């Protein structure tokens, strides 16, 4: 038996066109498009040990050096769902160690980075333990597929720059089973796109994304939402190709606000923005109008604000953050992130 330890560092991503609503086995109700991040990442390693009882999944899981029952349960549930496709998962005891580059309390969604890192480890280890063979393109496609089964947004984390997940009339290769790397050439204005995450509140989200997606099942605005997402996909593709910042900013902001509008009008209803979120939004819009600097905001299912802006305006926007926005951030916390190159592998024999 091989004793190789496989380690993958996999990034988080921020959706510009949001995935909200799913069906079947983790299939999205609309196509989404995301920016792969650079700093916010999970590093996970997987090694195998001998065990006696062959039939059951056995996991020794530690998160940042400590046992974590809640995460372990989620991982076991996930492994159970895919064990038939990877015989080594039941034949060995699995030793999994995981850590985030960002504080757990930072309010950053960690399921995208953690589930993609785990899926990548499982797939890499299957090439050794189960002697599977994959060509590079096939490897990432499968990694995205298995990441998706763990968390929808994780499907998008295995590719650099921008990633698209879901069927869309505007993207030929787009499909629901796995994400793809953004297939078009994007305008060089978007190279090294910046994302500064303003931490308005560090508390855990009051609605899990799983419960959140379920709210879309009976939402009175659902049908219109999916139409909007599809037409915004067209708009963002056009903005990315042409370097049209006005269209880019309006599309990204409308998506974020629509996500929150859907949550606010769900039954039960959730208001996840905080007063500081709105203060920041107002100031960002005012700053953009006054300076004509293309900076816009987007939101996850939470109160923290992601500011998206081009690399060439980094200095100006960072000054603006320091001078006007920091006061709305808890403990003046900001995470300065940017477009990333996708996951990285390490193998220790
Ligand atoms: C608002 O991927 O966390 O961040 O598939 O249930 O794990 P599950 O949901 P998840 O949902 C992400 C929702 C979102 C938008 C997005 O990332 O597209």
Structure keywords:
37% helix; Ribosomal Protein S5, domain 2; 2 domains; 14 strands; Alpha-Beta Plaits; binds ligand DP6; eight-stranded mixed β-sheet; 349 residues; 9 helices; alpha+beta; four-stranded antiparallel β-sheet
In short:
The chain has 349 residues and is an alpha+beta fold. The chain has nine helices and 14 strands.
Question: How does this model look, in words?
Answer:
By secondary structure, the chain is an alpha+beta fold. The chain folds into two domains: 5-184, Ribosomal Protein S5, domain 2 (2-Layer Sandwich); 188-338, Alpha-Beta Plaits. It is built from nine helices and 14 strands. The strands form three sheets. Strands 1, 4, 5, 6, 7, 8, 9 and 14 form an eight-stranded mixed sheet that branches. A four-stranded antiparallel sheet has the order 11-12-10-13. α3 (111-129) crosses α4 (136-150) and α6 runs antiparallel to α7. The longest helix is centred in the middle third of the chain and has 21 residues, at 222-242. The chain is globular, with a radius of gyration of 20 Å. The structure holds ligand DP6.
